[in-house]
Write a structure and sequence with these properties.
Structural class of chain A: alpha/beta
Number of helices of chain A: 10
Helix content of chain A: 25-40%
CATH superfamily of the largest domain in chain A: Stage V sporulation protein AD
Strand content of chain A: 15-25%
CATH architecture of the largest domain in chain A: 3-Layer(aba) Sandwich
Strand order of the largest sheet of chain A: 1-2-10-15-14-11-12
Largest sheet of chain A: 7 strands, mixed
Oligomer: homodimer
Order of helices and strands of chain A: EEEHEHEHEHEHEEEHEHEHEHEHE
CATH class of the largest domain in chain A: Alpha Beta
Chain lengths: 341, 341
């Protein structure tokens, strides 16, 4: 069912019946540390390569998820998953071994929400009874692939963000018990304002976030005050201030009083030397699959719009001088206790 | 709605109301040449780089698609699209400029069918009224990324396949006129039998195809004779003979009389020097979005099971000695004229 031009309404209200997060040491030492299900002290996760470590994070987050939900992999009808690695190999290798039908997703750092939307569409329609959404990122595999080998010791620019090491997974089900519910969603369109600085993802992604938030509020006929929280994915400091500016100047919307950003929540920006904040698929993925879903479940939060952003570049496109196409996908989560609107 | 353990049933029978294919010169000279909507003689498509050329193919195929359907981009509720390039940049850059909500898909060479399944789930459920599935590949961008720069002139092994240059797009709609219909689908599970030879994709993918075909036939209680055609994606010569062997020896199923493979159909294997056949996302994508949908539309074909296969490797995973996880997704298309079963 659709509302307005852009919004999908899940009339059967698929629920998130379990969620799990695994993070690295640095993330565990941040302000949200106590909310994660597992913190790995060794960034290799006992594996030989960073890529294998990242896959292992995704594998582990799903193992914890299935355990928390008390279901086996063979009871899951689909997993929507992806990551930042070339050919989505974090997911491809992380999910190898599970007997779960796999639909690979690519949304860069918006993958957490994009996967959840697709899982919800399938569950809402009856195509699936239970579907998992999952994503991962790893600081070391991302630096190696997108920037410099860690051994090189390159200086990071002030606008750069720190890729979150971790994985977050959620189980979406047609079991409409007393769980957080997925009420609505919006798939974003590609926005490209000509930003070419691959060390300033926040600036590239902010216009996509602004457009998606504007469209969602317009189509649902709501204002920021109708939400307990509007959470963006990983805009960080630079992207967040640009988002405020764009929303106010272009759309006349002020979200400051209800907004937060996963990239600003993940680390202590004063103490943890992450420059403009956190980023990566796992940034929004693990914040969503810990604090946010915990608080929706407890009723501390009742209505949350999560808008995850992604920068759809590759190293090849950057080397070829291309600007950075960006996208933002949104999902409306409620505590399952209150009626929507 | 589900049938058996693995099959999704589209009770609202979403239709494919338009389809479009664009291919390169070599593909245009093959046996299917006359069925494609456009053949580009210049492999660069007038662009500066192979990657830009590939994006342009995808862009063009959607432009033709929208034109054939007589709709504008703003009337489309979602596009599911992906490709083989790092960070799915063929789709990300190809779709930039269209005002269509974009859900990125990664399924390697299974992307054509995986995208169509996701579009169909959304349309069947009412989340979308119209959704596009699209995919592309390009011989030159794929060789550069996965194997050797063309300038190097490397020898290709006998088991290697030729990546199809092209793009195929389909428009899935809830308009249940006299169009080919998407009746059922099956999402595949990851299968990895330990094949490590990145120049023998057919062997890596055949077990996934066998499993998906077996599960689909079992869950729908059908036999190969119930289909006019069982079309696999890009197994080529090596993978096709392995598929026959696996299906007969492990599952007691003989599909030979109704089977064909896009990788065997695309080129004249005697004359066009493509070794084991065609491959790439666009292999199944363009065969499906030309000959197959044309013949379903005309009623020459009534019931076709399309099973596209993907090898979920990356160059990094191969260099690290990993085997090749593979997957096969299936979709049941009917002419829309005959009842199913």
């Amino acid at each position: 069912m659709r509302q307005g031009k852009n919004v999908i309404v899940f009339e059967n209200k698929p629920s998130v019946i379990a969620w799990a997060s695994v993070v690295g040491k640095k993330e565990g030492e941040g302000p949200l540390g106590s909310g994660f299900d597992m913190i790995i002290d060794d960034a290799t996760a006992g594996k030989d390569t960073w890529e294998q470590a990242e896959s292992d994070l995704q594998k582990t987050s799903i193992a914890i998820l299935l355990d928390k939900a008390g279901v086996s992999d063979t009871q899951i009808d689909a997993v929507y998953a992806g990551d930042l690695l070339n050919q989505c190999s974090g997911a491809g290798f992380g999910l190898r071994g599970y007997e779960i039908p796999f639909s690979g997703v690519y949304g860069a750092c918006s993958t957490s929400v994009l996967s959840m939307i697709n899982a919800a569409i399938g569950v809402n329609s009856g195509a699936f009874n239970k579907a998992v959404s999952s994503t991962s990122s790893h600081f070391c595999s991302a630096e190696k692939q997108f920037r410099y080998p860690l051994e090189y010791g390159g200086q990071r620019t002030p606008t750069s963000q720190w890729t979150v090491t971790g994985a977050g997974s959620a189980l979406v089900s047609n079991n409409t018990g007393n769980y957080p519910r997925i009420e609505k969603a919006i798939l974003g369109k590609i926005v490209d304002k000509g930003v070419t600085d691959a060390n300033n993802m926040g600036a590239a992604m902010a216009p996509a976030a602004a457009q998606t938030i504007y469209e969602f509020l317009t189509d649902t006929n709501t204002t920021p005050e109708n939400y307990d929280l509007i959470l963006t994915g990983d805009l960080g400091m630079v992207g967040t201030s640009l988002l405020y500016e764009l929303l106010e100047n272009e759309y006349g919307i002020d979200i400051k009083s209800v907004h937060n950003d996963s990239g600003l929540m993940m680390y202590d920006l004063e103490e943890q030397d992450v420059h403009a904040g956190g980023s990566g698929c796992a940034c929004c993925g693990t914040v969503l699959c810990s604090k946010i879903l915990n608080e929706l479940n407890s009723g501390k939060l009742n209505k949350v719009l999560v808008v995850a952003t992604g920068a759809l570049l590759s190293t090849v496109s950057s080397f070829q001088g291309e600007s950075i196409p960006s996208i933002a996908h949104g999902v409306l989560l409620t505590s399952g206790r209150a009626d929507d609107e």
